[in-house]
Amino acid sequence: QVQLVESGGGLVQPGGSLRLSCAASGGIFSGNIMAWYRQAPGKQRELVAGSSSGGSTNYADSVKGRFTISRDKAKNTVYLQMNSLKPEDTAVYYCKVRTRGTDYWGQGTQVTVSS
Fold this sequence. Notes:
Layout (H helix, E strand, L loop, with lengths): L2 E5 L2 E3 L5 E8 L7 E7 L6 E7 L4 E3 L7 E6 L4 E6 L8 E9 L2 E4 L3 E5 L2
């Protein structure tokens, strides 16, 4: 059974930075996709950034140039470096791993951007 443990959320001022981490354990197989989603109050959950085990990445238009997704394959960990944060980035951020056709979600970590 895959388990995901997220960390790194918190309160930051506009223009600041945070790095989220998501450590995966259990049955992670090759050909997986690791991604970050977020959900703001009253809004649907949306994809922020994704990373395939083959090395490709994709980003939501709203975060391009500000956020960077990366992974440590040896540790089965995916990171989201968030720079130039804006109040509209405030949300609960979730890590998701897709392996062998099954999606696994983390518990979520709150990111609040406010002065």
